[in-house]
Amino acid sequence: MLGKVKKVHFVGIGGIGMSGIAELLIN
Fold first, then answer.
1. CA distance linking residue 7 with residue 12, whole number of Å
2. Can you give the pLDDT of all 27 residues of the chain as single tens digits?
């Protein structure tokens, strides 16, 4: 759940690029 919230947070701040990075970190 925390990962999902973080991902949404990254999308809000940095856009899709940050979302991709966050996804890599989660995986």
1. 9
2. 566 666 665 555 556 666 677 777 777
State how far the Cα of 27 lies from the Cα of 15, in Å rounded to an integer.
19
| Angle at 24 (CA atoms; ends 20, 25), nearest 5 degrees | 115
Give me the DSSP letters along 1-27: -HHHHHHHHHHHHH-HHHHHHHHHHH-
Residue whose structure tokens are 């809000």: 12
pLDDT at 6: 64
Q: pTM for the complete prediction?
A: 0.30
